[in-house]
Amino acid sequence: MIPDFFIASLTGDAPGMAVQAWQGALFLAGVATLALLARAELQKRRHASRPPEHSGAAQAAQGWDTDPACGAITWPRGSQGLKYFLRTVMATLGTYFFVMVFLVPFTRGAGEVVRATLMTIAGQMAVLVVLLLFPLFQNPNPGFRYQAGGWRPPWFPHGLWHPLPAFAGGLALTSGVSLAQMFLDKVLARHTGITLGLDKAQDVVMHIANARDNPAHLLAMGVSVVILAPLTEELFFRGIVYPFAKSRMGALPGALLTGVIFGAIHASATAFLPLAVFGVFLCLVYERTRDIRAVVLVHALFNLNTFLLLLAGLPPNP
Fold first, then answer.
1. How far is it, in rounded angstroms, from Cα 151 to Cα 117?
2. Which residues pair with 291 in a beta bridge?
3. What residue segments make up the domains of the chain, in order of their start?
4. Which residues make Cβ contacts (< 8 Å) with residue 47, sequence separation at least 6?
5. Which end of the chain is more exposed for a tag (fewer CB within 10 A), N or C?
6. What pTM was estimated for this model as a whole?
7. Separation of alpha carbons 262 and 248, rounded Å
8. Distance CA 28, CA 114 (A)
């Protein structure tokens, strides 16, 4: 979901000064966070610090990716790793679509929005089970790091990469991309008559906006958007897709590919570019925190913010 509430506040469409002030403060905090993060990254590159030492020499000798991240799969290199990766992706996507098809006859009596919500939640829960369990059965070496060695204490000792400032930074980044995208669309339409077709919100955004008068449906949408979506999407994209892509292509190309897939899977022309950028940013957060919980929380805060703004009566995102 794209935080176009910032754009709305600039044009006077926000439902109140309190909301405008809150979103403006978040945006400015995010811009400051991004500036400080960029400065820290430039200093780190300038000093060319020594890469961290990796544990697991025995696995490294056998050709395994020994990246010490919390909550990601360690893939074997070569054809064996590709086989495990494809199995996991096929099991994940196959489970989701199987649940979608299986539930069709049982939800025909419900309205379109209610049916979509029920099917989405069922699919997300089934996928979550697959993501947590499937790699452990097929991988002869430890799969998810938290299964092998427990969570690493303390939680998120990463300064500006802590989920709260990272959330503000991601919010500002996607808002800026969305604003630039809308500006380009208007310029093209004015001077060439060509439009990018960025005038339609994601279906889930419209569902939330239309469910404000139904508390039960709204609660179900909140669980799906704020809890299940961040868990399933981050376990899949940052816990599975990105580590595999990084092991084959390197960190930056892997993050770019993961971001593009992340944006495309939301099936929205309006949301694609901002969400692709957000997906790359989440890969960077994951790289710097080495903890899947951090990106899950950043993603959850991002969705929660937009969810609450829609509840406040803000016009849905385009």
1. 32
2. 70
3. 5-49+69-311
4. none
5. C
6. 0.80
7. 18
8. 37
Closest CA to 139 of 57, 81, 86, 68: 81
Q: How far apart are CA 66 and CA 53, in angstroms?
A: 10
Amino acid 35 reads A
User: Helices 215-222 and 292-311: crossing angle, nearest 10°?
Assistant: 150
291-318: pLDDT as tens digits: 888 899 999 999 998 888 877 765 444 4
**Considering only CA atoms, which of 293, 270, 289 is closest in space to residue 71?**
293
DSSP string, 218-255: HHHHHIIIIIIHHHHHHHHIIIIIHHHHHHHH-HHHHH
Amino acid at 223: V
By residue count, the chain amounts to 318
Instruction: Give dist(CA 244, CA 283) in Å, integer.
Output: 12
